[in-house]
């Protein structure tokens, strides 16, 4: 226990850093995921192509490589932000591709006739998607979206290698101070477990409230 009690402030700082990364990157991933899912089913060919390219490139790019591209590449083009903002951008964009595909699978479960009925009433594509299709699609994809965000929380550990304050990065300091490496990682694992269980509990609640009854 002394590993935790002697370094509670350090663990707390890393824990809060991981929570912040997870929350901000999740919000970005959900926003971009909704947008790209809309592009994937849009009647405009150029939007469908853009959405397809976005998903294909990001899903097939290693996350570590994306971190290098964002944190080291963007400053060369004049975009200078705090490392945490770059980490949120990398995590959010990467995860948005998986959110997009989860939502698109949900959109495909909505009967085509509902969209046709909405258009026959004079609703535009945007209105049909936002009012009729996406609310129903989201109800059916709550579990996979929750699993994707849990994966995001664990993927945030990569940010520690790029000078971003997060939970896994605490092991470097504790190792230099001579603490037992096994117990150092045990308490790090407990921190990640708390975060992932919290996300799981939230999405279980959402599923019970809004999920599709089976």
Automatic annotation (TrEMBL):
<dbReference type="GO" id="GO:0043190">
    <property type="term" value="C:ATP-binding cassette (ABC) transporter complex"/>
</dbReference>
<dbReference type="Pfam" id="PF00528">
    <property type="entry name" value="BPD_transp_1"/>
</dbReference>
<protein>
    <submittedName>
        <fullName>Amino acid ABC transporter permease</fullName>
    </submittedName>
</protein>
<comment type="similarity">
    <text>Belongs to the binding-protein-dependent transport system permease family. HisMQ subfamily.</text>
</comment>
<keyword id="KW-1003">Cell membrane</keyword>
<dbReference type="GO" id="GO:0006865">
    <property type="term" value="P:amino acid transport"/>
</dbReference>
<feature type="transmembrane region" description="Helical">
    <location>
        <begin position="49"/>
        <end position="74"/>
    </location>
</feature>
<keyword id="KW-0029">Amino-acid transport</keyword>
<keyword id="KW-0472">Membrane</keyword>
<feature type="transmembrane region" description="Helical">
    <location>
        <begin position="80"/>
        <end position="100"/>
    </location>
</feature>
<dbReference type="InterPro" id="IPR000515">
    <property type="entry name" value="MetI-like"/>
</dbReference>
<feature type="domain" description="ABC transmembrane type-1">
    <location>
        <begin position="15"/>
        <end position="203"/>
    </location>
</feature>
<feature type="transmembrane region" description="Helical">
    <location>
        <begin position="181"/>
        <end position="206"/>
    </location>
</feature>
<keyword id="KW-1133">Transmembrane helix</keyword>
<keyword id="KW-0813">Transport</keyword>
<dbReference type="InterPro" id="IPR035906">
    <property type="entry name" value="MetI-like_sf"/>
</dbReference>
<keyword id="KW-0812">Transmembrane</keyword>
<dbReference type="InterPro" id="IPR043429">
    <property type="entry name" value="ArtM/GltK/GlnP/TcyL/YhdX-like"/>
</dbReference>
<dbReference type="InterPro" id="IPR010065">
    <property type="entry name" value="AA_ABC_transptr_permease_3TM"/>
</dbReference>
<dbReference type="GO" id="GO:0022857">
    <property type="term" value="F:transmembrane transporter activity"/>
</dbReference>
<feature type="transmembrane region" description="Helical">
    <location>
        <begin position="15"/>
        <end position="37"/>
    </location>
</feature>
């Amino acid at each position: 226990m002394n590993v935790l009690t002697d370094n509670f402030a350090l663990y707390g700082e890393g824990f809060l850093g991981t929570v912040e990364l997870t929350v901000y990157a999740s919000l970005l991933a959900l926003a971009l995921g909704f947008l790209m899912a809309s592009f994937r089913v849009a009647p405009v060919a150029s939007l469908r192509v853009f959405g397809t390219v976005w998903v294909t490139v990001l899903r097939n790019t290693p996350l570590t490589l994306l971190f290098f591209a964002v944190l080291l590449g963007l400053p060369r083009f004049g975009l200078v932000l705090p490392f945490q903002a770059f980490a949120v951008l990398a995590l959010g964009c990467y995860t948005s591709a998986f959110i997009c595909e989860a939502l698109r699978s949900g959109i495909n479960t909505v009967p085509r006739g509902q969209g046709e009925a909405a258009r026959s009433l004079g609703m535009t594509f945007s209105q049909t998607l936002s009012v009729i299709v996406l609310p129903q699609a989201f109800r059916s994809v709550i579990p996979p979206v929750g699993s994707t965000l849990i994966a995001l929380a664990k993927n945030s550990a990569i940010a520690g290698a790029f000078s971003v304050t997060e939970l896994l990065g605490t092991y470097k300091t504790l190792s230099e101070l001579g603490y037992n490496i096994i117990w150092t990682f045990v308490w790090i694992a407990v921190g990640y477990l708390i975060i992932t269980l919290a996300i799981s509990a939230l999405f279980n609640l959402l599923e019970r409230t809004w999920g599709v009854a089976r």
